[in-house]
Amino acid sequence: MPMHAAMRTGTRLASAVLIAFAFGFGLAGPARSGEPALEEELRAKAEAAVKAGTLGAFRQDVGARLAKALNEPTALGKGAKDLETLEHYFNVGRLLDFQGDEAARDFLVWLLGQRELCSRFLHALEPTDRPDKAVEVLRRLKAVKGVDEKRYLQHGEMLIAFARVWDTYDWMWWTNISVPPERLEEIYEYYMTYAPAMQIPPDRLPHELMVHVVDQPLPKDERDYALGFRGRANLGGLFFDIKWIMDTNSLYQGHNKSVRYSLMNIKERSGVCMEQAYYATSIAKCVGVPAAYCRGTGARGGHAWTGILKIQGGGAAWDFASGRYSYDHYWKGEVYDPTFRKASLTDGEVAMTAGILALPKATLESADARRNLAIFILSGLAGDGAPAPARDAGTSSRPRRPAPGRPEDALPDLPALAPERRKLAYDLLFSSVQMNPFSRRTWNVVGIAAAKGVFTLQEIQSFSDHLFRTVDQYSPDFACSTVERFLAAVKDEAARDRLYEVCFNYFRKRPDLAAELKVAQGRRREADGKADLALKSYLDAVATFPQDGHVTQEAAKSIDALLSKTEPRKAVEALSSVWRLVEAGTQNNKPEEREALRLIGENLLKYLKLAGMDRELAAFEPSFRRIFPAQKK
After folding, report:
1. Mean pLDDT in runs of 10 for the chain (633 residues)?
2. Is residue 128 within 8 Å of 398, Cβ to Cβ?
3. Sheet holding 301-312, edge to edge
4. Contacts of 268 (CB under 8 A, 6+ apart)
5. pTM
6. Would you give the end-to-end CA distance of the chain in angstroms?
7. Dist. CA 538–CA 520, nearest whole Å
8. Three-class SS of residue 334?
């Protein structure tokens, strides 16, 4: 669970609290760019290319100039702003090169003139976004009556969030809610109309957080109902306003098709954890507070709970505690990605985004540009910043995001990359995470590059140190999962094991994460053919964190898999030692919090029988069954 999960908030989140936005997050200010002459030249050429339909040729020209600029000795010195200008217009040619009618082309020309909005928008797009559809969302919202251009640009971050969420829209599958095309404009007008009354005004949040606000498609009566909770201090507590009832009259899991699935009916008829979490997060979104429906699976089955952004004093943090019962605390939570609901984010990835509130938008822009410049060097654009091209009608609406651990932007092997190019890529990426350490996309590129051998051991250590200094305070879960990728990239076994121990000791404050590192170390040792050392890592993981959790269960299963290949008496010896440690550490725990102990005990019974150790079996089994009765088959 994130370190700041217990934060409390007042009855209203005063805008004065949002000190990070003193500069304003609207996008109507002056352009951030390099030399004015270069900016003016490229903008004029981009506009001409849009009108002529030649953005492909424009991209090639800018790409050649960018490659040349990156070869200059002062690329990251006095030439840094020019690099960012070239990177922006390369993005223009790369992402806006799609077919459109005259009205669409006119809008693109206008968008090019809104430098900050255009740049933030293009940097926001990911491989699962549809650039053509996202631009269409921006165009439709600009046409909404009653919102002049000044107000439109003032809410630029919200516009970007709408574009990413609503380019091809999906909602919670079990709600059976029909989302008509015009609902986009309705939701936009709703936030623009009630902006002053929102708990957090929509022009005060970056798009990275606003995607967790504008991803709701609720009709007017439900939005009006939700507005009644604007003064609610503890929005996460709405979870418990819904009674847990699972019968034919309730709305549990959307099974009751005879009754509309709405906030009002959920309140009246109740449901299960799905309805509790849906109710709380939907209301929070409607009053302007980023919220996430979170789910996970543990030994007792599936569960859903809430994630709510809370702001207090000068800080902000996601609270994933509401509805997350004590015995669920160490199960990994998953959140539907609001921009691509077929994929998931971890609760740790979402928790990290709170840190973005402390960063000026100009800093975020430079950080994104430097990440993309590093990708340009490393992969010739086979990288993270490149959304897939628009698809033809009749094909899948968006490409699927690959499974966790299989990034969408694998870099090629880089044995021929010159040392100075590797160093420049490192400098760009390291400066990017220094500017914005809360970008999942940038850390993903760093992890891929590390796995490909781009960085030295010292450089990997520098990334790790910065990760711990910055990200850990918002999301130790993300810090741990990212450092695992760095450790796996270290080729020298002795150096890798030393770093594992350093990280393991660092995360002792979170025993579940320390155990996760031990499991990762065990897997690496297994892959290296070091079965004995792998077994030691798994045993350490269970002994370190003997609570019910996915990590300890994985460790216990890995222990059994390794011991099945050894002599039964050796297995008994190993399991007996870890049983004593875990049993002593969980004596006061409830049975559901001792799942790892049960698995160890079941395996110990198995190997006592295989070893023919009848006397020891007769002594152990009765005491074990008093704690864990035999499960019915």
Report:
1. 32 37 42 74 97 96 93 79 95 94 95 97 94 97 95 97 93 88 96 94 96 96 96 92 90 87 95 94 97 84 91 87 73 90 91 95 95 87 36 36 38 67 93 97 94 91 95 94 92 91 89 90 93 92 76 85 92 90 74 75 93 94 88 62
2. yes
3. 315-319, 301-312, 291-298, 334-336, 344-346
4. none
5. 0.87
6. 34
7. 9
8. strand
